[in-house]
Design brief:
- It comes from Citrus sinensis.
- Keywords: ATP-binding, Nucleotide-binding.
- GO terms for molecular function: ATP binding.
- This protein is mostly helical.
- It has a single domain, classed as Orthogonal Bundle (Helicase, Ruva Protein, domain 3).
- It has 3 helices and no strands.
- It is globular, with a radius of gyration of 12 Å.
- 6% of the residues are buried.
């Protein structure tokens, strides 16, 4: 859900950052941590967007300035 489908969330965020000439990379460990957070919150794939937003929001604002 984070990396494989055509419209995977990870790919969406990579495209967003690339619009500002920033390369975003998720390590395997980071992907596991994100998945574990979603599992712990009992949200499954539905909660992934909120988790990614909470992690990347500050970086998105920094990139735009």
């Amino acid at each position: 859900v984070l990396t494989e489908p055509k419209n995977a969330l990870g790919k969406q965020y990579k495209r967003l950052f690339s619009m500002n000439n920033v390369k975003l990379h998720f390590t395997e460990k980071a992907l596991r941590v994100i998945a574990k957070k979603a599992t712990a919150k009992n949200t499954g794939a539905r909660g992934l967007r909120a988790i990614l937003e909470s992690i990347l929001t500050e970086a998105m604002y920094e990139v735009r300035t």
